[in-house]
Design brief:
heterodimer, A: alpha/beta, Rossmann fold, 10 helices, B: alpha/beta, ten-stranded mixed sheet, 7 helices
């Protein structure tokens, strides 16, 4: 499904390499956790996959179902099924959340040659999913993420995911800034989306999230490269011993 | 160096001398240089079918409201709901020294006053149709909103040709009354639009003025807002959607002559191509006008490298217990916003149009009528996609 080979990435306006030969293969239905210390390149990986400007791929490739991801616009990637849940969701004043969801869903459907949803169909579709995430109608009327609390922003990201039904979800530190109750709601939302066709990459600093979203594979990212891969027990080990071992190895 | 400037053809035709860039308020809009060389005052009336076609161009044409129609500056009674409105064909003279008013007095074809008594919930739309080339015309309209009364007026400007239209309005909003006014400037792309709005606000009154500037090659709109009684509130907002070589200049003066009044100015200006937008806002607080609360802000969204925005805020405060402030920003579309929208599958063009509509939407939100606001959102969407 997703195939990352020897990916080297540097910041476009600085001569600093962040990812230094990262390789990763994700198959349908799998949940991969990527753990690593601050500055190891976790967020860079998620942004490069989503297509944010400011990064330059100097070597390597990323393919998704055989297609070259790096050659696509961010919107094309989204229409092909890639979704990034942002660590810091962006506030967009003046654009109502409901309208945003509708424009996004219909744009994706259009790009895939599917029929746009009628307004009543769409409203029902969103309301069902919003209710499961404790998202009120009032929140849907507010501008995208504007004035949302940290927890509301993360729930709103998961709602977008539930509405857009991507085939590959990348969750970038979705647990950051969440208390334990909010974390549970978000994790339940994510787990409800687990399916044999859908893959997930869960990027996190802490093991805590992985108690709730149990991964099939855990990778340790350090200084721009995956330095160890294991089962879910690897996360527990990291929790106990910290990242010190890996930081030294990479250096 | 010559001291007396020779009169231009336009000045000869209009019988006045026009302001030029050496005058502080006109430094960005050199009317003398910009007005067409040849201008005739007044224009023949266009065909009935043409007038009717333009009346349909109003974005709120399908809305139920009372209508007053002006064609080339003249009141068209046959197309107006004059029977159900209290009006007269006179208007006061304004003793304000302003070239726009001076010009209007020379070329306006009609003087017209509307009186509002009681709470008039139905919108009154005044549609100005301009059709003609190298002609100059105008209208002078006065609104009188009686004590404890309210009114909602929409002025819509549409047309075709290279005419010059001058619109001067004044309004007296009596004690505890409220006036909502929306000016929709959708004039012909080849036209020039010169306007002035003068307000006299009584005790405890409210003014909610919104202007939307989309049409005409040159727009200059002046505003003068005078507080006559305490505890009055004035909200003056505006939006520009400009492209090509369009030029729009708003020049406002708020006179806080009495204590305890509030003024808010908010302008959201979008400029593409080589368009140029200007906002000049002056707030004068008299010595005894304590507890004045005045805020002014202008924000520009520049969609091209060659678009330009100039802002000139001026505060003249003689009282010592006031809250007054101003702010101005200019920038292009926020890249993080664009990326976020695109990352959800929204193509770039559509993402941009959402963000542009959201930007001017802040000014449209000031309009206190859902149906009219929706019509405005429609115009913004049309402007973005029609680029």
């Amino acid at each position: 499904m997703l195939e990352i080979k020897n990916l080297h990435v540097k910041l476009a306006d600085e001569n600093r390499e962040i990812l230094k030969g990262l390789s990763l293969t994700v198959k349908p239905g799998e949940v991969h956790a990527i753990m690593g210390p601050n500055g190891s390149g976790k967020s860079t990986l998620s942004y490069v996959l989503a297509g944010r400007e400011g990064y330059e791929v100097t070597e390597g490739s990323v393919t998704y179902n055989g297609a070259d991801v790096l050659a696509m616009d961010p919107n094309t990637r989204a229409a092909k099924g890639l979704f990034l849940a942002f660590q810091y969701p962006i506030e967009i004043p003046g654009v109502q959340t409901m309208q945003f969801l509708k424009v996004a869903l219909n744009a994706q459907r259009k790009a895939r040659g599917e029929k746009e949803l009628s307004i009543p169909e769409f409203l029902r579709f969103v309301k069902e999913r919003a209710a499961k995430l404790n998202i009120s109608q009032d929140m849907l009327k507010r501008p995208v993420n504007v004035g949302f609390s940290g927890g509301e922003k993360k729930r709103a990201e998961i709602l977008q995911m539930a509405v857009l039904e991507p085939s590959l979800c990348i969750l970038d530190e979705t647990d950051s800034g969440l208390d334990i109750d909010a974390l549970k709601v978000v994790a339940e939302g994510v787990n409800a989306l687990r399916s044999p066709e859908r893959a997930m990459i869960v990027i996190t600093h802490y093991q805590r999230l992985l108690d709730h979203i149990v991964p099939d594979v855990v990778h340790v990212l350090s200084v721009g490269r995956i330095v160890k891969t294991g089962g879910k027990e690897l996360a527990l080990e990291l929790e106990k011993n910290g990242y010190a071992d890996y930081a030294e190895k990479a250096a | 160096m010559s001291t007396a400037l020779q009169l231009t053809s336009a000045e000869q035709a209009l019988g006045i001398s026009l302001p030029n860039r050496r005058m502080e308020d006109w430094r960005w809009t050199d009317l003398r240089a910009r007005l067409a060389k040849s201008l005739r005052i007044g224009a023949p009336s266009p065909s009935a079918s043409k007038i009717d076609a333009f009346l349909k161009c109003s974005p709120i044409a399908s809305m139920k409201c009372k209508r007053v129609v002006f064609v080339n500056g003249k009141l068209d009674k046959s197309r107006s709901d004059t029977k159900s409105l209290v009006f007269s064909e006179v208007a006061p003279n304004e003793m304000i020294d302003d070239p726009v008013i001076e010009l209007n007095m020379k070329i306006s074809q009609t003087r017209f006053s509307l009186v509002f008594e009681g709470n008039v919930s139905e919108v009154v739309e005044i549609i100005h149709v301009g059709i003609g080339n190298e002609t100059a015309f105008g209208s002078r309209i006065h609104y009188e909103v009686a004590r404890n009364s309210s009114a909602f007026v929409v002025e819509t400007f549409v047309g075709e040709g290279s005419y010059l239209n001058s619109s001067v309005i004044s309004a007296t909003v009596h004690d505890n009354a409220r006036l909502d006014r929306l000016k929709l400037e959708l004039e012909s792309p080849d036209s020039q639009h010169l306007a002035h709005a003068i307000y006299w606000l009584g005790k405890g009154s409210q003014l909610n003025d919104v202007s939307v500037t989309i049409g005409s090659s040159l727009t200059r709109q002046n505003g003068t807002c005078n507080f006559l009684g305490q505890n009055a509130e004035a909200k003056i907002s505006g939006a520009y959607l400009l492209k090509g070589k369009q030029h729009a200049d708003t020049c406002l003066v708020i006179n806080h002559a009495v204590p305890n009044c509030t003024s808010r100015e908010l302008f959201k200006c979008v400029m593409d191509d080589n368009a140029r937008g200007i906002f000049q806002g002056k707030v004068v607080v008299a010595k005894h006008a304590q507890k004045t609360d005045g805020k002014q802000s202008s924000h520009a969204l520049l969609l091209s490298e060659s678009a330009e925005f100039d802002a000139k805020p001026e505060l003249e405060i003689y009282a010592d217990d006031v809250v007054c402030g101003h702010g101005a920003t200019a920038g292009d579309l926020n890249h993080d916003h664009l990326f976020y929208l695109k990352s959800r599958g929204i193509p770039e063009a559509e993402a941009k149009s959402l963000l542009i509509a959201a930007f001017v939407g802040e000014a449209f939100d000031m309009v206190a009528n859902d149906e009219v606001r929706e019509a405005l959102a429609g115009i913004a969407a049309q402007w973005v996609t029609g680029k």
